[in-house]
Amino acid sequence: MKKATFYHAGCPVCVNAEQELLNLVDTSKVNLEVVHLGEHANRIPGAEDAGVKSVPALVLDNGSVLHINHGATMAQVKG
Amino acid sequence: MKKATFYHAGCPVCVNAEQELLNLVDTSKVNLEVVHLGEHANRIPGAEDAGVKSVPALVLDNGSVLHINHGATMAQVKG
């Protein structure tokens, strides 16, 4: 079982896009942990140690850190 | 079947991280197309129309564009 950790901070616009990404993941092969750093600030040092520079970010069990920027449209921002 | 398109340009350091991301995807639920824009420049206008501002990026079938930055370590760059 692979392990991946998705760190985010609850940005409302980004949550939908993040959910879409998470929906793509094969949870039969990947143990995916989702960590809301705004609610669990005690996890911030571990995220920093893993190399997280911004959120949202996906940390893989081989040490790779994928920083994700969601290019929200103005229409999405206007909701 | 969901559809997702992964655009990249063959950055050697990023390819490994991208492959890791792609390995996470549940291909039984997602039709994932990988497009190398360096080799298929005719796909660039479509990527731009979809909202791709940088590569690598993952475009989802609901219109969301996730721009992915891989924070490569200097050790990885030194390879």
Task: Map the helices and strands.
Two copies of one chain form a homodimer.
Chain A (H helix, E strand, L loop, with lengths): L1 E7 L3 H13 L5 E7 L7 H7 L6 E4 L4 E6 L3 H5 L1
Parallel strand pairs in A: 1-2
Antiparallel strand pairs in A: 1-3, 3-4
What does the model show?
- Chains A, B: This is Thioredoxin domain-containing protein.
- Chains A, B: It comes from Kriegella aquimaris.
- The structure is a homodimer.
- With about 80 residues, chain A is an alpha+beta fold.
- The first copy, chain A, has a single domain, classed as 3-Layer(aba) Sandwich (Glutaredoxin), CATH 3.40.30.
- Chain A has three helices and four strands.
- Chain A has helices spanning about 10-25, 45-50, 75-79, and strands spanning about 1-10, 30-35, 55-60, 65-70.
- Chain A has a four-stranded mixed sheet.
- In chain A, α1 (about 10-25) links the parallel β1 (about 1-10) and β2.
- The mean pLDDT of chain A is about 80.
- β4 (about 65-70) of chain A pairs antiparallel with β4 (about 65-70) of chain B, so a sheet runs across the interface.
